Amino acid sequence: MLIPRVIPCLLLTGSGLIKTRRFRHRRYVGDIINAVRIFNDKEVDELLVLDIDATIVGYEPRLDIITSIAGECFMPLAYGGGISSMKQAEELFTAGVEKVVVNSAAIRQPELIKQVSSNFGSQSVVVCIDYKRNWLGRVHTYIESGRKCTGMTPLEHAGYVEAQGAGEIIIQSIERDGCRMGYDLDLIRQIASATNVPLIACGGAHQLTDFSAAIDRGASAVSAGSMFVFHGKHQAVLITYPERHELESIFQRAA
Fold first, then answer.
1. What is the pLDDT of residues 89-101, one digit of tens each?
2. Residue in 130, 177, 184, 210 annotated catalytic
3. Stretch 65-73: mean pLDDT
4. Could you please report the per-residue DSSP string of 67-114?
């Protein structure tokens, strides 16, 4: 049975792996190379690594660490964090990264999406759209790790980056990050209905049925962080990933 991709999302800072809650409240969860090796053993579909400090602090993608991660990865690797030029994208592909993920650059330098797409194919460039609601319930896209509001809605931004050549879109709820309250299904449905590129749901996954619910609303793949690194009511650090028969069962029931 062909099942949708289920992608662990790993947040990198310094040389360590962390997990956030609502893009704040950082908690160290271990060494990223060790995490990659565990996910290798569990035969995950794909891995998403985001350096959440690169754009804020202002440093370029750290090729030494990224090369080490790519060297350990048995699965396709997508990397985001501090990417602002074609040269950096080329260096990342040379280092072994399959997809580059842009967030702030999709607002500041949208031409970069088209450049990467034209040179390496649209499948190689992914745009991550972070968003949250204000006190009036209006939804806005944020950049700089959720620190700066762009004024654009995620729906507007998704349509724009698709037109620029993005091959995939990650839609990530800041308010649900690390809270394990389920995906934002209504917004997933809206964006999936309005765009024609694969959509990856991110932010809020708590249980396996959240995956099938997001796929049912039109997502092509799902991503999660806390669900794969914390375990039990005390949130002990334990890297896990569903067995294939569990995923087949949940997606089969939803089909």
1. 999 999 999 999 9
2. 130
3. 96
4. HHHHHH-SS-EEEESS--SHHHHHHHHHHT-SEEEESHHHHH-THHHH
pLDDT in tens, 115-146: 999 999 999 999 999 999 998 999 999 999 99
Rounded Cα–Cα distance for residues 110 and 116 (Å): 11
Residue type, 61: P
Helix or strand or coil: residue 5?
strand
pTM (2 decimals)? 0.95
229 contacts: CB under 8 Å, gap ≥ 6: 17, 19, 29, 35, 237, 238, 239, 240
* Contact present, 9 and 50 (Cβ < 8 Å): yes
Maximum distance among all Cα pairs of the chain, rounded to whole angstroms = 47
Phi, psi of 202 (to 5 degrees): -145, 140
Residue 131 burial by Cβ neighbours in a 10 Å radius (0-12, 13-18, 19+):
buried
Residue 184 designated active-site: no
DSSP per-residue string spanning 132-145: EE-TTS-EEEEETT
Residues 182-202 have a mean pLDDT of: 97
Tokens at residue 132, please?
A: 């949250």
pLDDT at site 14: 78
Higher pLDDT, 78 or 45: 78
Q: How far apart are CA 100 and CA 124, in angstroms?
A: 6
Measure the N-to-C terminal CA separation of the chain; round to a whole number of Å: 12
Is the Cβ–Cβ distance between 217 and 59 less than 8 Å? no
β-pairing, 139-143 with 148-149? antiparallel
**What pLDDT is attached to residue 254?**
66
